[in-house]
Amino acid sequence: MNVYNLGDVKIYRITESENSDIKPTFFFPGTTREMWEREASWMKPQAMDKDSGDLIFPIQCHFIDTGSKKILLDSCVGDDKERATRSHWHLKHDGILLNELASIGISPDMIDYVVSTHLHADHVGWFTEKKGDDWVPTFPNAEYVIQETEYNFWVDKHQTEPLDHLEDSVLPVFDAGLIRLVSRDYVLEDILSFIQTPGHTPNHCSIKIESEGETGIFTGDLIHSPVQCKNPDWYVRPDYDHELAIKTRKDFFKEYADSGVVIFPTHICSPSIGRIVKDGAVYKYEFV
After folding, report:
1. Is the overall model pTM greater than 0.85, yes or no?
2. Where would you find the membrane-spanning parts of this chain (predicted)?
3. Residue-wise pLDDT tens digits, 14-37
4. Among the listed residues 262, 266, 276, the one whose alpha carbon sits nearest the alpha carbon of residue 229
5. Containing domain of residue 9, as a range?
6. Is 131 exposed, middle or buried (0-12, 13-18, 19+ CB in 10 A)?
7. Domain tally for the chain?
8. In angstroms, rounded to a whole number, what is the distance separating the alpha carbons of residues 83 and 121?
């Protein structure tokens, strides 16, 4: 875990896992082996395994301490969840997120808000934990802040295509009365603003944070790899609407490149935190 000071706010990056076994052409289905070979010289060894060429891919979230409020931004895969199609996730039990919070003196009951960029399984896992036979909210004193359109999309989908992560991670929090459904332009505590970055999910959002004249953006799954800064047309397999995701990414780069805005991504390899900068006719990701 590392910490970044943005104005008066402390932002902790919590990495639940960082694996290097994702085949690039599988995860980026519009690409070929030859396309990746052209990028390997600058991608290895930080973003691609130097031997296998597989992608180095973390699962992470962020803890924000404003001084007066304690906020968790997304919540990784979680423990004890049945995810049979994902061997690294299935029934894992390591407590990493809670242990990392404990290492800086934060217990689950101290969290004021859990804020969601979108409701994929690797972002909502620690919404709940297993107590006996029941799934209960991990952060009992928190409000779970979710964009209403994103929540409604997944709940509607769950009616016809049952989703394990809705059943064990999202709906128990709703049943406990802890979810706050918010508008697309919601502002939380005068410091976090929801901005629309659709495509990965229909109502995917990113979260802008501002403090003492400095700005950061938690991009969720808008960007999965630094290679997408150079190649924004490269979409990922989980994208709901890859054409929309591409457009959103290009618009985002155009707006924020060379702006000084700090990017806090979910899946970009360590050290992860960085900025988007112009690099001739394209863009690149610079770690900070």
Report:
1. yes
2. none
3. 999 998 889 999 999 999 999 999
4. 276
5. 2-287
6. exposed
7. 1
8. 9
